[in-house]
Write a structure and sequence with these properties.
Radius of gyration: 20 Å
CATH architecture of the largest domain: 2-Layer Sandwich
CATH topology of the largest domain: Transcription Regulator spoIIAA
Number of helices: 6
Largest sheet: 6 strands, antiparallel
Order of helices and strands: EEEHEEHEHEHHEEEEEEEEEEEH
CATH superfamily of the largest domain: STAS domain
Number of strands: 18
Number of domains: 2
Helix content: 25-40%
CATH class of the largest domain: Alpha Beta
Distance between the termini: 53 Å
Length: 285
């Protein structure tokens, strides 16, 4: 069979893997089975589409089928929203990402299952906070469930993610404004707030007022960077007036997004290059 679709045990997630050459028939069947399994899940749910085992993918067919899938799966349901992520690498996956963006289809692409699952778990938690608070339930997507599920990558949560997702213990976050030739080093202890100070408010952890923050559209509390227990970083826009972007894609306010080593992040009109460093190499530099 050129594809495999299954539900993850005890987690509101469907895993869909494509093998061989992804043609119209295999892609249609993959999405069709995924929809059927997604319909069986109550509450917020998500799907991981693993393209790493595919020899090729018909991008036009994939985008058209994904559009139909979105129309089908987004039929209003009172029990919770749906999110998706794709795992893949290479030039063809880059072209697929661009085609999905052009079609207005939100299916972010990651290079490892750990990054995809981290993103989806954050989305599930974020969107369901109000509901779970009302029911006084525990977290919808617990770390324990994530740890039990991660072997789809034949790895463990302690492995370094492939695409620069692991932040070194006692590490230093470097934010570099290449156009201004300026650098800020941040020693993360849980979280750091990014913004600008004024006469009525205290300075945030990362104060961009000295870099012309007001003129560049930086809000007083623009965004925050959080360090998880699994040594990964998340970037959250705090409802800023001029937005926060990762590699040109605007973040939804108050929704955490994975922050990776090498990412280009824009706060308002200020673009910064993100680098992860350990304290030893920073001290030597």
């Amino acid at each position: 069979m050129p594809f495999e679709v299954m539900k993850a045990p005890d987690i509101p997630m469907v895993i869909a893997k494509l093998f061989g050459h992804g043609n119209r028939e295999s892609i249609d069947n993959l999405f069709s089975q995924a929809v059927s399994l997604m319909d069986e899940i109550r509450g917020p749910r998500c799907m991981v589409i693993d393209l790493r085992t595919a020899l090729s993918v018909d991008i036009g067919v994939f985008v058209d089928t994904a559009r139909l899938y979105k129309q089908r799966i987004l039929t209003p349901r009172a029990d919770g929203p749906t999110f998706e992520a794709i795992i893949g690498k290479g030039d063809a996956i880059t072209q697929l990402s661009q085609s999905l963006d052009q079609a207005g289809i939100v299916m972010p692409i990651f290079k490892s299952s750990e990054e995809a699952i981290t993103y989806l778990s954050l989305k599930i938690d974020t969107e369901s906070l109000t509901q779970t608070a009302k029911r006084k339930d525990t977290r919808v997507f617990s770390d324990e469930k994530l740890n039990n599920f991660l072997p789809i990558d034949q790895g463990t949560p302690t492995q370094v993610p492939e695409a620069g997702g692991y932040f070194p213990e006692n590490g230093v976050l470097q934010l570099k404004a290449e156009e201004l030739q300026k650098v800020i080093l941040v020693c993360l202890d849980g979280e750091a707030f990014i913004g600008r100070r004024d006469s009525k408010h205290n300075a945030p952890d990362v104060d961009l007022s000295l870099w012309g923050g007001y003129q560049l559209g930086i809000s007083r509390r623009h965004a925050k960077i959080s360090l998880s227990k699994r040594q990964t970083l998340q970037l959250t826009d705090l409802g800023s007036a001029n937005g926060t972007y990762i590699s040109g894609k605007r973040l939804e306010p108050f929704a955490p997004y994975p922050l990776l080593d090498g990412d280009q992040v824009t706060f308002g009109k200020l673009s910064l290059k993100i680098s992860f460093q350990d304290q030893q190499s920073t001290t030597k530099a």
